[in-house]
Structure formats: C-alpha cells, structure tokens
Design a protein that fits this description.
The chain is of the alpha/beta class. The chain contains 13 helices and 19 strands. It has helices at 24-28, 47-52, 61-67, 79-83, 105-109, 131-150, 177-188, 202-208, 235-249, 272-277, 322-340, 353-358, 369-374; strands spanning 2-5, 32-36, 56-58, 70-75, 90-94, 113-116, 158-160, 163-165, 169-173, 192-196, 212-214, 254-257, 283-286, 304-306, 309-312, 341-342, 345-346, 359-362, 365-366. Strand 1 (2-5), helix 1 (24-28) and strand 2 form a beta-alpha-beta unit. Helix 6 packs parallel to helix 7 and helix 6 runs antiparallel to helix 11. It is globular, with a radius of gyration of 22 Å. The structure holds nicotinamide-adenine-dinucleotide. Residues 122, 127, 130, 132-133, 136, 173-179, 196-199, 202, 228-230, 233, 238, 241, 258-262, 267, 269 line the site of nicotinamide-adenine-dinucleotide (NAD).
Length: 381
C-alpha cells in the first residue's frame, strides 16, 4: 500500500498532513510512503528529513496522485487533483463537506472513500483525533499574539520609575476551545480578561483561568445544544448578548471573538456601535470569519480599520504557526489512521461510530446523510 504526502496548494497554506516523525509506525507496518518534494518545508521538515524517516521523494505530483492508496491531506483536493486520484483511494482531511459538498463531487465519483476531520464525532474515544480542537487551540493563541502585536499599548501592568502602566483589557466572546486558549494566552501576557458565552457551563472554565465571566439573562431560553455545543438563539436572545457586548467593548482594548454554532453561519453579535465604542487603536480579531464572522462589519480575510479600530478577520491562523499546527494535526491524523489501517492494509469498518461519523463517502457512495442531502443523492445505506 502506498501512502502519499502532498504539498498543500491552497493559498497561504503552510501546514502538512504528516511530518517525518509520524512515519515510523506506518513504515513498521510495511506501508510505502512517497512525499511530494517540498511538502513539509514551511512546517520545518525538509525532503532530507522525510528520506531519513524512510520515505521516497517525488517531484511528480500527478503520478503520486495516480498511485497513492491513502492520502492524508490538510485541505480538500482541488478539482484538478480530484480528477487524477487513483480509483478506490482513501482521502482524509479538512474536506469542508457541509460547506462545499459539490466541490467534492469529482473525487466521490472516481470512486473514492473520503473522511472529513471536521466530522470526527466529539466523543471521548475520538479526542486524540479531534483536529478541530487542535486547530482552535492554535488559533486562539495566535489571535491574542496578533492583537498584542497590533495594539499600540502594552499587555501587562508595569510599575516603573516613570510611572505605572495599567494592564490591557481583553474581552473574549465564545469560551469554547479557541476562546479558552485566547483567555489563557491573554492572562499569561498580563491582561485583565472578561469573557462571555451563552453556555452557562463555560463560566466555571473561564473563572478557572482567572478571567471574569459575564452572564446574560436569556429570559429562560436554553442555549445548550447537543454535545456541549451552543444552540442557535432567537433574535431576542441574541440581542441581549449584543447589548452586553456593546457595553463591554467600550472599555476593552482587544476583543477576540470565536462564537460559532455548528453547521450554521456564525452569529452576528458585534454591532457597528460596539466597534465605534472602542478607543482608536483597539483591536478586534474575528476568529469566526471563516463562518462569516461575529461582527457585522467583518469582511472574511480582509483587514480593516474602522474609526481607528483595527478589525482582523483571518481565515487560517493555524497556517501562521505551521510547525506546531502540523505537529498536532499529524498526531490527529495518525490516530485516525490507526482506525482504518490494520497490519499495513486498509480496513474500513463503518460499524465503528467514529468512522461512520467522519465518512463523507465510501467507495463512491455518499455516507453522511447531510452531505448526501446536500448533493441531492439518495443514500443507499
Ligand atoms: P464552537 O467553535 O462551535 O463555538 C465556540 C463557542 O461559541 C462555544 O463555546 C459556544 O457556546 C459559543 N457561542 C455560540 N453562540 C454564541 C452566542 N450567540 N454568544 C456567545 N457565545 C456563543 O465550539 P468549540 O470550541 O468547538 O466547542 C464547544 C464545546 O464543545 C465546549 O463545551 C467544549 O468543551 C466541547 N468540546 C468537547 C470535545 C470532546 O468531548 N471531545 C472536544 C472539543 C470541544
């Protein structure tokens, strides 16, 4: 069996799906590994490192695509790459099956088996494969570093002979995986941190990091969705959050916003008035930009300055920390591979709930009912 490691082609992508350190257990099972030249360069892994780990290097991407039986990727393959895939190949990556299912149609038809890292169920057995959490951790950290870099102020309180400088005030909206990492990072830099989330359960975690949790009375509406996620709120309940956010923005130097509801556009929580209430020079990082953004002024991927307030809307912050983002992702991928590769052979058992949950299509047939519906294809299973 041949496993291929490709150089990612999405603009700005620097991560790689597997690092040389990940290959040992695969090679020990007799799996041949071919790496596209330069695949790991931005993530600190040279072609020589892969060769030393037992892989072969190729500059011929098309022939690697045509011969690989197993393709762990970071991003979904491009349309051109999809048409060159070996029929029967198993592809694993952030495939965006719910956002852009039609973009996978050519791959499904080869036929292929596709697993999406976004769809790995968040159950305890699959925690070591939870790539969304890995990337959210990196993004939450980097969002605060980016804000600190842009802020014309210091983060920590400083008591100097020239006087005392007060600490920066950071407001984190959405205290999930990315938000909690943003809180921890801002606290380490010495900021005073406040945080808001609709899930009351987040309060304890926020307080344990030394931040203040801001509660909103949602008028008895339950904000808890399934699996520890938030539910989509009514406009009236959202408005209560928006009012709190506008009030808190007025005394915040930095806002990092991360609020998301799975499978839905990001809730619009930050009004223009909140941005205009901030001091010029303040920074807002909208980590929900890939899902449309939490701020009504956000333009995904575009940096703006609005009345002196810098609004960042990054689409791929983990790619700005390629070494550790790749390291975490590669470990998630390796743990996932352990479910589908037994003694060097592919063995896909969709009775396993982790595989069934993550499977977009198996041998050319859509498996995930939501994806199948989006593709307007009837599921056979
Ligand atoms: P996410 O990215 O979907 O959302 C980020 C945060 O935004 C969440 O905390 C959510 O409550 C919040 N949010 C949504 N709508 C909001 C609104 N209108 N106002 C304010 N905040 C809003 O979530 P995530 O970070 O991926 O994870 C969220 C939850 O899932 C957490 O409870 C986390 O502990 C849990 N989780 C469990 C596992 C596991 O069991 N393996 C893994 C990861 C996360």
């Amino acid at each position: 069996m041949l496993l291929g490691i490709l150089k990612e082609t999405a603009p700005g992508e620097t991560r790689v799906a597997l690092l040389p350190e990940s290959l040992k257990s695969l090679i020990a099972q007799g799996i041949a590994i071919t790496v596209e030249s330069g695949a790991g360069l931005a993530a600190g892994a040279s072609d020589r490192d892969y060769v030393d780990a037992g892989a072969i290097i190729t500059t011929n991407r098309a022939s690697l695509l045509a011969s690989a039986d197993l393709l762990p990727l970071v991003n979904a393959p491009s349309a051109g790459d999809q048409s060159g895939l070996k029929p029967g190949v198993v592809v694993i990556g952030f495939l965006k099956p719910l956002d852009a299912p039609h973009a996978l149609a050519a791959a499904i038809a080869r036929p292929t088996t596709l697993f999406s890292m976004e769809l790995v169920p968040r159950i305890s057995r699959a925690q070591s494969m939870d790539a969304l959490s890995s990337m959210a951790t990196v993004a939450g950290y980097k969002a605060v570093i980016a804000a600190a870099d842009r802020l014309p102020r210091l983060f920590p309180m400083l008591m100097t002979a020239a006087g005392t400088i007060p600490p920066a005030r950071v407001f984190v909206i959405g205290a999930g995986v990315a938000g909690l990492q943003a809180i921890a990072t801002a606290r380490r830099l010495g900021a005073v941190v406040e945080a808001y989330d609709v899930r009351a359960a987040a309060g304890e975690q926020v307080r344990s990091l030394g931040a203040k949790f801001l509660d909103v009375d949602l008028g008895g509406i339950s904000a808890e969705g399934g699996g520890g996620y938030a539910a989509e709120l009514t406009e009236e309940a959202l408005d209560r959050g928006r009012d709190l956010i506008t009030r808190t923005a007025a005394h915040s130097d930095v806002i990092v916003t991360t609020a998301q509801v799975p499978g839905r556009p990001a809730p619009r929580l930050i009004r223009r008035a909140a941005i205009e209430a901030m001091r010029p020079g303040s920074v807002l990082v909208d980590l929900a930009a890939p899902a449309g953004g939490n701020c009504e002024l956000t333009k995904p991927g575009i940096e703006q300055t609005i009345k002196g307030v810098v609004l960042l809307a990054p689409l791929n912050l983990p790619a700005e920390v390629p070494v550790h983002a790749s390291q975490l992702y590669a470990r998630n991928i390796l743990n996932f591979l352990a479910l589908i590769v037994k003694k060097g052979e592919l063995s896909v058992d969709l009775a396993d709930e982790v595989l069934a949950g993550a499977c977009v299509a198996h041998n050319g047939t859509p498996v995930n009912p939501r994806v199948a519906k989006l593709l307007e294809v009837a599921t056979t299973g």
